[in-house]
Design goal:
The complex is a heterodimer of chains A (about 375) and B (about 170). Chain A is an alpha+beta fold and about 375 residues long. Chain A has 15 helices and 5 strands. In chain A, strands 2-3-5-1-4 form a 5-stranded mixed sheet.
């Protein structure tokens, strides 16, 4: 073994007793090794003499910074204490009976069933639009009828010749009856179905489609023809069965008053008589063709009007009512969406997340501070 | 483990204060020699705060003083890295040459110069052993190197110092 490599360790007393004894004998026998040992001792001595011994400062501060003993848990995870505290607060908030709301209004609205929400939007729009448009729409129909009839007349003055008042006094919009389609949310489809059947039977109407006969609550379509005179009453009763989602009307205005119908009939007959006179007086064959067409059309109108008047006399004029019945539980938002049904743990978790601006920066700061120490 | 250390481990504040008083001087000088008086004092205080937090985790594989110097060594290294300064500045280790025989002053200046030419690893081992008075095993534990490496580094460092100083020291 190389004595020179162990010389420093020998001088520092780091060798085993046997090896130290070997080194002592080697140094005594080798003057060169002896000189090297002396130089090592001197360097070591000089280093220790030169070493700075700084005066002690800051002991009092170090003692002052020694804090009282902390519980084991606190001392080990002190950085996590803000989050633990906030977690406890979140659970506490979840247990409170008057807890703050977790669900924002816009979120709850968004959580509704999309088709239902769309229907509600549509209904809201249709209600507002209907209020604006119903009168003008019906007025337009009336105007259209009036215009058609005026065109058929051989002269614009003809209607005024019919006697008592205006022959084209049409029903006011409030009194008008047209074919109607309803989309209704009802508590029970089967119950609503049976009520409608009773109402239609009482009004002497004809049920075209009673809907799917089923005991389960599913969407069904009820369709019936109802005497025009009773239509408005039945429509009101149908609306009261549930929540009207959408309502639309179509077809011609049917409930002409008997006076109006008779006035129009008189005008049409006078017009027919005028056309026939004009045809007899026609000199050119070219003028006959359009006159004959007008005569045919006016005759057809007269026939229709007579049928309407007869139906009014018999009470056999019908309007169509179509009701789409939707069970309410499928239309309403899912119960799990409501705050009361959010599981306790999830609720606490949400509160914990809401408190994150408080605990997260504190936790990170304390954790980084701990790492730095 | 002595009684004071045992009580300090259970959270006894008085025992903890006694440990601080017992070891503060060694730790403080160790830190000041590496960082200077200002930062050295801060590092010493941080060392004892760490001791208070981590004393329960001390596994007694070395003496308490060596363990404390290990903590202080880590703190000093972090601060040196942060300040981008030499971790072993010799001006903090040695006083200015004192008045005395001219030959002695010259020899010490030469020794200081030779020491500055040592590698970082060799210089650290020399200073820990010669100035701090740590044994080989303690240095090995502190630096996380085998004891044989400490012995080897010391041997080569002293051979280098002797060669640098030439016949004047021999």
């Amino acid at each position: 073994m190389n004595e020179r490599e162990d010389l420093k360790a020998y001088l520092d007393g780091e060798l085993s007793p046997e090896r130290s004894e070997q080194m002592r004998l080697a140094i005594a026998a080798d003057p060169e090794l002896q000189a090297e040992a002396d130089s090592f001792r001197r360097i070591s001595s000089d280093l220790q003499e030169m070493a700075q011994i700084p005066p002690i400062h800051g002991l009092d501060q170090a003692l002052a910074r020694i804090s009282p003993s902390r519980p084991w848990l606190t001392s080990r995870i002190s950085w996590a204490m803000p989050s633990v505290f906030c977690l406890a607060v979140a659970f506490g908030m979840s247990l409170l009976p008057g807890r703050p709301s977790l669900v924002r209004p816009e979120i709850s609205a968004a959580s509704e069933d999309r088709p239902v929400a769309a229907e509600r939007d549509l209904k809201a729009k249709s209600e507002s639009a209907a209020a604006r448009a119903s009168a003008s729409e019906i007025d337009q129909d009336a105007m259209r009828d009036q215009r058609t009839k005026s065109l058929r007349a051989p002269s614009a003055a003809a209607p005024q010749e019919t006697g008592a008042g205006s022959p084209l006094v049409l029903p006011t919009p409030q009194e008008s009856v047209r074919d109607t389609k309803l989309r209704l949310e009802v508590a029970s489809v089967t119950q609503a179905q049976s009520l409608l059947l009773n109402e239609v039977a009482r009004a002497e109407g004809v049920v075209e489609s009673p809907g799917t006969p089923t005991k389960t609550e599913v969407l069904t379509i009820f369709k019936a023809k109802i005497p025009t005179a009773r239509f408005q009453d039945i429509l009101e009763r149908t609306r009261s069965l549930g929540h009207v989602v959408v309502e639309s009307q179509s077809g011609p205005v049917r409930n002409l008053t008997p006076e109006n119908a008779r006035a129009i009939l008189r005008t049409q007959k006078r017009m027919l008589s005028d056309y026939k006179t004009m045809l007899q007086d026609a000199e050119s064959p070219l003028a006959e063709s359009p006159l004959r067409a007008q005569i045919d059309e006016t005759a057809k109108s007269i026939q229709e009007l007579e049928e309407v008047i007869d139906a009014q006399k018999d009470g056999s004029e019908f309007s169509t009512l179509e009701a789409v019945l939707i069970p309410r539980q499928t239309a309403t938002p899912a119960p799990a969406r409501t705050e009361a049904d959010v599981p306790f743990v999830n609720r606490a978790g949400l509160y914990f997340l809401y408190l994150s601006p408080l605990w997260l920066p504190l936790t990170v700061w304390l954790f980084l501070r701990r790492r730095r120490v | 483990m002595d009684e004071t250390t045992s009580r300090a481990r259970t959270g006894d504040r008085e025992a903890m204060a006694a440990l601080v008083r017992e070891h503060y001087a060694v730790v403080y000088r160790f830190c000041v020699r590496r960082l200077g008086p200002d930062f050295g004092q801060d590092a010493a205080q941080e060392t004892f705060l760490t001791m208070q937090k981590s004393l329960r985790k001390w596994e007694e594989r070395s003496s308490l003083q060596t363990w404390l110097l290990g903590i202080a060594h880590n703190h000093c290294r972090k601060i040196s890295t942060k300040r981008r300064q030499d971790p072993l500045p010799l001006e903090n280790w040695f006083d200015a040459p004192k008045d005395g025989p001219e030959q002695q002053v010259t020899d010490r200046e030469a020794l200081r110069s030779a020491l500055s030419r040592l590698s970082q690893d060799h210089r650290e081992v020399v200073l820990l052993h010669e100035i701090e008075g740590l044994r080989y095993a303690e240095i090995a534990g502190l630096l996380g190197i085998p004891e044989g490496t400490v012995k080897s580094r010391l041997h080569h460092a002293f051979r280098h110092l002797r060669d640098c100083l030439g016949g004047g020291m021999a």
